[in-house]
Amino acid sequence: MRIAIVGAGPAGLDAAESLNEKGYSDIVIFEKSDRAGGKCVTVDHLGKKYDLGAIMVGSGYHRVLFHCNKYGEKTVEGPYHFIHEGDLTQGKKVSLPRGVLGFLSLLSAAWVVATNFQIRKKPLSELAFKQFYKCSIDDFFNTRFLARIRHMFAPITAGCGYGFTNTTPIIYLLKLVYLGLPRSTLSLIKLLRFKLSGRRGSLYTPMTLENGFGGLLQKMASVHNIHYNEGVTSISHKNGVVLVSTNKATYMFDRIIFAIPPKDALAVTSKYSTSVATLLKQTRNVCYFSALIHVPVAEKLPRGVYFDNSKLSDKSKGKHATTIKLYDNDCGLLFYGVGDDSTSAKSSAAEAVKDFIISNYVGLGIGSDSVEEAIESSSVIEGAKWAYFPHVNPEELHCHYAMIESLQGQNKSFFVGEWPGFACVEGAMENARDVVKRYF
Predict the structure, then answer these.
(1) β 3-6/255-258 pair status
(2) What is the C-alpha separation between 246 and 249, in angstroms, rounded?
(3) Residue of 375, 414, 440, 439 lying closest to 12 (CA atoms)
(4) How do 27-31 and 3-6 pair as beta strands?
(5) Which CATH superfamily is domain 40-212+285-392 in?
(6) Which pTM was predicted?
(7) What is the pairing mode between strands 304-308 and 80-84?
(8) How confident is the model over 338-389, as pLDDT tens digits?
(9) Is 3.30.70.1400 the CATH classification of the domain at 3-32+229-282+393-439?
């Protein structure tokens, strides 16, 4: 059987790996750019690795860790998490709540985990969407006895580009949290061994990859047949064969797997499937931008992930909500934010530098008369912008993912990745593996 895969991101590469595991070898991956990795971009700056896409590896990232072991990629301890209000240098480390109310919050959280365990075990298409899955993250924490642990989870959403806490359905945050938790006794033991081996950090401090996600995905890509700079322009069917036309040639395949964003899939599938077109039009992309900035005055800032609690709603669209410092005694900072189509990565980064220095100059140890000089001495190393996580309107949640599942296999086409799965590397890879396991 000859199989085409469109997209060489985490989902496309894992689909190829999963097909290989099942004995399929005649596989071609079409990638419209000149590199593999999709939204995972690792920048090498002054001998250090910085990820502009995915950064953290949760203890429940089974598929990612499987590939790390297979390709010899090492995990290292990630930075602490901090929450702050404007002045990042006054940020408080994220920790468990204390006191009676804190204890009750944890009990309430345990109840949520116990009653919604299916989120972890099942793909989104198989979930029976309860009413509260459709409420926003803010409404979820405000209407339950969970306010005291909101700081542990809610910032991840806007801070990592998933969407604003007042507009993003809680289902997405719950799925992300569950994906990151240990999913077996063995994975919990491995996590404890990692944490007790002399490394710093709390039990829930995540890990990063020594060479970044880009390093891992490049190694995965090196063993597959990838046609770079060859984008798929149209799909048709003739005599039981899938005809794939690209900007270079037309090919014949028995099946095709789409591992690309909804809008890109719509561009090549709408001509033969009105159902796919209708389904894709239900989604709305969240524009996500990130940048690596060289900021000399931040050299002594403790390494960490700093979530700005004042920029988690859509009132702060286009502004950076998260500042990440991966290394001690380093001038490199990663800025993350949620914007819109009019927001460019470099202009956002330039504004983020100004905002960062003006908001934190006292804590950074410089005087007000040195602010302009500090801004001038900073520089944007690299910026990236994507139409990131394809959200679904809350009123359509109950049927959207089931509709995607009903389309799997029609016209010998399959859909994998962050759209039918979940928008983190582990979620995209798991979804690809699940689809291959069930249909091939």
Answers:
(1) parallel
(2) 5
(3) 414
(4) parallel
(5) Protoporphyrinogen oxidase, mitochondrial; domain 2 (3.90.660.20)
(6) 0.90
(7) parallel
(8) 876 666 777 778 888 888 899 888 888 888 899 999 999 999 999 888 876 6
(9) no
